[in-house]
Specification:
Chain C: This is proteasome endopeptidase complex. Chain C: It is an enzyme of class 3 (hydrolase). Chain C: It comes from Lachancea thermotolerans (strain ATCC 56472 / CBS 6340 / NRRL Y-8284) (Yeast). Chain C: Keywords: Cytoplasm, Hydrolase, Nucleus, Protease, Proteasome, Threonine protease. The complex is a heterotrimer. The termini of chain A are far apart. The longest helix of chain A is centred in the middle third of the chain and has 22 residues, at about 70-90. In chain A, helix 1 crosses helix 2 (about 95-105). Chain A is of the alpha+beta class. In chain A, strands 1, 6, 7, 8, 9 and 10 form a 6-stranded antiparallel sheet that branches. In chain A, strands 11-2-3-12-13 form a 5-stranded antiparallel sheet. Chain A has a two-stranded antiparallel sheet with strand order 4-5. In chain A, about 30% of the residues lie in helices and about 35% in strands. By secondary structure, chain B is of the alpha+beta class. Helices cover about 35% and strands about 20% of the residues of chain B. Chain B has helices at about 20-30, 80-105, 110-120, 170-180, 190-205, 220-225, 230-245, and strands at about 35-40, 45-55, 70, 75-80, 135-140, 145-150, 155-160, 160-165, 210-220, 225-230. In chain B, a hairpin with a 2-residue loop joins strand 3 and strand 4 (about 75-80). The longest helix of chain B is centred in the middle third of the chain and has 22 residues, at about 80-105. Chain C has one domain: Aminohydrolase, N-terminal nucleophile (Ntn) domain (Glutamine Phosphoribosylpyrophosphate, subunit 1, domain 1, 4-Layer Sandwich). In chain C, the strands form 3 sheets. In chain C, strands 1, 6, 7, 8, 9 and 10 form a 6-stranded antiparallel sheet that branches. In chain C, strand 12 and strand 13 (about 215-220) form a beta hairpin. The longest helix of chain C is centred in the middle third of the chain and has 22 residues, at about 80-100. Chains A and C meet through strand 5 and helix 1 of A and helix 3 and strand 10 of C.
Chain lengths: ~220, ~280, ~260
């Protein structure tokens, strides 16, 4: 480990990991986050109904991948910072939330295994997606995919993503994408969870295997 | 000296029996004796104007800027001890940059005013420091629109529609009140002209001294939310307007003005003339 | 001497150098479960504690009290589950006195996970936290690295796979208290019978809002030792005396020596 290269291939022994399929997509009215629900310890599924979509502010959420402990700790700290920010300055932007995530992930890169997608909605900037992969860099994107399962759906997403989709189109695009990710990635599975962030607030969706397996 | 023997004015962190902090009050005097500064809010921004007294014929006209930029979207003008003001601006720049580093967004003006207020207030608490000998006008534009604050040596700050400090503040304030109540929907260019006129008016009481007008603005429509010096052509236009409005036919910019156009010094500043022994 | 003692560090280094086997901590190779049911939550544990292949304790207690109505089942390193549970229990009590409020399960959870995360997994505590507080009944699990999970039923420890099989097959949201007790005990028994690290008895603790927690130590004892068919106590005289001889083991000789002292 020399500060440039990060040891990504090994979690601490026995650590719980989110070998995951996660994504976030901007659309006409805001942004939607999506994730599978599998948590593993080695070959054992420690939790088959995990919630990897975590709230850090009313309309700023994140998708977590990597170590469960690390990403939960980071999300808890960001949630705390945003609470303080709100008390002092009012509603934070998604960019501000992403910046706090980045600072934590970048400055502790040697001790963290955390791949996070930050997505949020605010009145000024509408839906936004920021991807923060392992080294702690930030990438603003129209949509982002991450986690072990994402490798299988780069092509699918690239071909099928369209700007300014409707909510239903977006949900269906994400359901198809995550369905394929789960199908081909052994570390992903369970249900598909989604959170829709629009001017009306946050809405949760859930899709069971029978809903997404044979699309 | 009124309070000789009491000793309550010697130390910064000590109250007098009637609950005053003399050091802070002396600092206010320092600010009140300084050259006039004016700040004014308009529809989508703010304008800052200062009276720059020409202390030497050798100084290069148009250089030696007094108005400073704290962040791209925030300007600051102050009256009183210039080095104190420059120090405060430095602190403001540190606060603005640290905010932008952690939150990836420009510091909102209320937050900046608050942090500067805390910093100035801290200088009224300790024996090892003295209060700031300035009153600063901080203005700019953020996500919530235009903001204008005036910050005093005690650390107090208030949000204003129009603010004035320095020697000519009384007449400037009276004029600001008139302008703001008569023309509430001023646009940027009109505001610049009005601010220029007010500085020229406030200088009336101090006519024997030569001065230069310096102005900056920060508006959504004219400067894209950035704090910038008012461009040369508009500045010249504003000066011409100010002179015409004040019925001043002489040119105080280029030549010292001997012709005493002694009108009626109606709003003579009483406090501004206090002598420090 | 104040502060930490590192006396054993050199010894351990030495031992590790000299032999392949390092002293192992006592681990509760365990089965623990938690079950939510209609009106409450309960947790259960087996009572076997092991040191490698040896059963160190046949009836140890793995259910710990964090506060009167928040209990915790521990797997992993026995000493760590005990200590971390005591520490957070103590801090939670101070917190509840400061806030003049009943302690909450989420508070215990947050304190535990932050403590464990700080120690990066070196505190080997795997916990199922459950309890009743003013906001309702709750059930969580925590892993040693500080990650937490929520669920209607949880299992942890070496016997968790066996226990989870039972829970997955039989859990329902409308379970009544007695049914939940039965289910949790069955899950622990699955561990007791099928996992080498688990054994002996079932401990249970039931928590419902507005009621005191019910701690049922040895709720089930499926491993009571059979009374010995025969006794190994022999009456006096069982061994026949064939001959008897008394020996002087040592002989003592005494001798007095006179020393003449010169004047």
């Amino acid at each position: 480990m020399n500060g440039i290269q990060v040891d990504i291939n090994h979690l601490k022994k026995g650590e719980v990991s989110l070998g995951t399929s996660i994504m976030a997509v901007t659309f006409r009215d805001g942004v939607i986050l999506g994730a599978d629900s599998r948590t593993t310890t080695g070959a054992y599924i420690a939790n088959r109904v995990t919630d990897k979509l975590t709230r850090v502010h009313e309309k700023v959420w994140c998708c977590r991948s990597g170590s469960a402990a690390d990403t939960q700790a980071v999300a808890d700290i960001v949630q705390h910072y945003l609470e303080l920010y709100t008390a002092q300055f009012g509603e934070p932007s998604t960019k501000t939330a992403a910046s706090i995530f980045k600072t934590l992930c970048y400055e502790n890169k040697d001790n963290l295994t955390a791949g996070i997608i930050v997505a949020g909605y605010d009145e000024k900037n509408k839906g936004e997606v920021y991807s923060i992969p392992l080294g702690g860099s930030v990438h603003k994107q129209k949509y982002a995919i991450a986690g072990s399962g994402s490798t299988f759906i780069y092509g699918y997403c690239d071909k099928n993503y369209k700007e300014n989709m409707s909510k239903d189109e977006t949900v269906s695009f994400m359901k198809n994408s995550l369905s394929q990710a789960i199908k081909w990635d052994g570390s992903s599975g369970g249900v598909i969870r989604m959170v829709v962030l629009t001017k009306d607030g946050a809405e949760r969706l859930i899709f069971y295997p029978e809903d997404y397996e044979n699309l | 000296m009124t309070s000789i023997g009491t000793g309550y004015d010697l130390s910064n962190s000590v109250f007098s029996p009637d609950g005053r902090n003399f050091q802070v009050e002396y600092a206010v005097k320092a600010a009140e004796n300084g050259a006039t500064s004016v700040g004014m809010k308009f529809k989508d921004g703010i304008v800052l104007a200062v009276e720059k007294l020409v202390t030497s014929k050798l100084l290069v006209p148009g250089k030696n800027k007094k108005i400073q930029t704290i962040d791209r979207h925030v300007g600051c003008a102050y009256s009183g001890l210039m080095p104190d003001g420059r120090h405060l601006v430095n602190r403001g720049r540190e606060e603005a940059s640290s905010f932008k580093k952690t939150y990836a967004t420009p510091i909102p003006l209320p937050a900046l005013a608050d942090r500067l207020g805390q910093y100035v207030q801290a200088h009224t608490l300790y024996n090892s420091v003295r209060p700031f000998g300035i009153t600063a006008i901080v203005g700019g534009v953020d996500d919530d629109g235009a903001h204008l604050y005036m910050l005093e040596p005690s650390g107090t700050y208030w949000g204003y529609k129009g603010a004035a400090t320095g020697k000519g503040r009384q007449s400037a304030k009276a004029e600001l009140e008139k302008v703001i109540s008569n023309k509430p929907e001023l646009d940027a260019r009109e505001a610049v002209k009005e601010a220029a006129r007010i500085i020229y008016l406030a200088h009336e009481d101090n006519k024997e001294k030569d001065f230069e007008l310096e102005m900056s603005w920060c508006s959504i429509s004219e400067t894209n939310g950035l704090h910038k010096a008012v461009p040369k052509d508009l500045l010249d236009e504003a000066i011409a307007f100010a002179k015409a409005e004040n019925g001043d036919d002489s040119d105080s910019d280029d030549s010292s003005d001997e012709s005493e156009n002694e009108k009626d010094n109606e709003k003579k500043d009483a406090e501004g003339d206090v002598q420090l022994e | 001497m104040a502060g930490l003692s590192f006396d054993n560090y050199q010894r351990n280094q030495f031992l590790a150098e000299r032999s392949k086997t390092v002293p192992q901590a006592t681990s509760t190779g365990t089965t623990i479960v938690g079950v939510k049911y209609d009106g409450g939550v309960l947790i259960a544990a087996d009572t076997r504690s092991t040191q490698g292949p040896i059963v160190a304790n046949k009836n140890c207690a793995k259910l710990h009290r964090i506060s009167p109505k928040i209990w915790c089942a521990g797997a992993g390193t026995a000493a760590d589950t005990e200590e971390v549970t005591k520490l957070i229990g103590s801090n939670l009590e101070l917190h509840s006195m400061y806030a003049s409020r009943e302690p909450r399960v989420v508070s215990a959870l947050q304190m535990l996970k932050q403590h464990l995360f700080k120690y990066q997994g070196h505190i080997g505590a795997y916990l199922i936290v459950a309890g009743a507080d003013p906001t309702g009944t709750h059930l969580f699990s925590i892993h040693a690295h500080g990650s937490t999970d929520v669920g209607f039923y949880q299992s942890l420890g070496s016997g968790s796979l066996a226990a989870m099989a039972v829970l997955e097959a039989n859990w329902r949201p409308d379970l009544k208290k007695e049914e939940a007790m039965q289910l949790a005990s069955d899950a622990i028994e699955a561990g007791i019978w099928n996992d080498l690290g688990s054994g002996s008895n079932v401990d249970l603790c039931i928590m419902e809002t507005g009621k005191d927690a019910e701690y049922l130590r040895n709720y089930r004892t499926p491993n009571v030792r059979e009374a010995k068919q025969r006794s190994y106590k022999f009456p006096r005289g069982t061994t026949a005396v064939l001959s008897e001889r008394v020996l002087d083991i040592c002989q003592v000789e005494e001798e007095t020596v006179d020393i003449e002292l010169e004047a």
